[in-house]
Amino acid sequence: MDAFADTMAAVHNCARPVRLAGSSATVDARTGEVLSTFRSADAPLGVLYRPCGNRRAHICPACSRTYARDTFALISAGVAGGKRVPEQVADNPLLFATFTAPSFGLVHGHRGGKPCRPRRRDDRTRCPHGRPQWCTAVHEPGDARSGAPLCPECYDTASAVMWQWHAPELWRRTTIALRRAVAGHLEVMESALGERASIQYAKVAEYQDRGLVHFHALIRLDGPGGAGIGAPAPAALDGPTLAALVREAAPGVTVLAEAIDDEDSPRVLAWGVQIDVRVVTPAHRSDDPTAALTPGQVAGYLAKYATKDVSGLHGEGQHRPHVAAFRAACEHLADRAARHHGEEHDYQRMGKWVHMLGFRGHFGTKSRRYSVTLGALRRARARWQAMAAESRRTGEPIDTRDLERRLLADDEDETTVVVGSWTYLGTGWRDAAEEALALAAAARAREYDQWRADRRDGHDKGTGISGATTSTR
Ligand SMILES: [Zn+2]
Ligand SMILES: [Zn+2]
Ligand SMILES: [Zn+2]
């Protein structure tokens, strides 16, 4: 039992740890001296367990929380500085924008306690299939009908799938359009924009009840050198002006989607009409919902979205026929495209993304110079654990001077290398009871974090990752 408890603690209550057998040695890169060795046979259970690192909360609650914390740290470093990003980054214009999918037909939805689609009695029309185009029900969040079309036959599922397939390209073109708009405002050639400014962003995709993704994006305007380095962001472009440029540029961005086959037509795809752009200010926190967002809030939102995925659409064992229909349409279009275009075509690959409802983009993406990377944060954690283990072994204290710089240093600055030989044995605990214990421990850890955060203050409540929020203050 002790061996199991130690192992569980070492993988931070991961639900499906990876089991490895083998050994490794830590070597001084300059002298070649072997500093320490490790063999899995010496591990508490005789096998090395490593956390699975999965981002999705329903697969591994513990690792998903680590991912959310890292995402939070990454996002907030780009908003308020920290993790080697200069604090001056907070002075640069910053937006929080949500890009939605357009409507492909009337759907049910929860409207904050109000009726779904009320119509006056004399205004109640039916679709050509005889189905009502109104709904007086009040849907609660999580209602299986939320996001379902009022008429599945009227709803343009094929176009919805095509939109989802092309959404990453739509986003790419939006970033290009924004660059062009910023260059225009600063009256420089687009090719010379880099000498005056640079635009950095971080974004996450979130599935809506309809099965379509929204993009939530942080968009930051930096000076030519990047965040807080060299010249500041151009004074001619403040937050509200940048927001106006996004609102102007985004609606005009389109992608022309080729037809699936001869039975189909090409489509012009664009964003939905609701493009919400808000300025983020580092100013004081406020309970006024119309006030500008604060860095802690946006980092919390993005970190929360980053751990969600398509599984959230199914709720707790819930059957949602419209999500199944979306998936079926995706599969059907992939088949048609395969028959018509053959192996080479882009649409051919749609079949591989049916489980994601045709969305093939990454959940979280960021531009190169937005802030620190997830990889650097993971490396820092591994280095910290190695330091702590070394300190326990030798009794030497951990030197905290300049610690963050050393933890986040690039690999080139690394003075030790780890060489090893490992064999993959499998994934998961030895039996269901062990997995249940790990899940229970993860839930307890989460409750404890929550309790600690609630005691501190009501800061960022509702983001679900309050354990990490102190890093912004
Ligand atoms: Zn895990
Ligand atoms: Zn309804
Ligand atoms: Zn209809």
Task: Give a verbal description of the structure.
By secondary structure, the chain is of the alpha+beta class. 33% of the residues lie in helices and 15% in strands. The protein folds into 2 domains: 2-59 and 373-472, no CATH class; 86-104 and 156-366, no CATH class. The chain has helices at 2-10, 61-80, 157-186, 239-249, 295-306, 321-341, 374-394, 403-407, 432-456; strands spanning 18-28, 34-39, 48-50, 94-99, 198-207, 213-222, 255-257, 267-269, 276-279, 364-366, 416-427. A 5-stranded antiparallel β-sheet has the order 9-4-6-5-10, sandwiched between helices. Strands 1, 2, 3 and 11 form a 4-stranded antiparallel β-sheet that branches. The radius of gyration is 25 Å and the shape is globular. 33% of the residues are buried. The structure holds zinc ion (ZN) (3 copies). Residues 108, 116-117, 135, 137, 139, 145 line the site of one zinc ion.
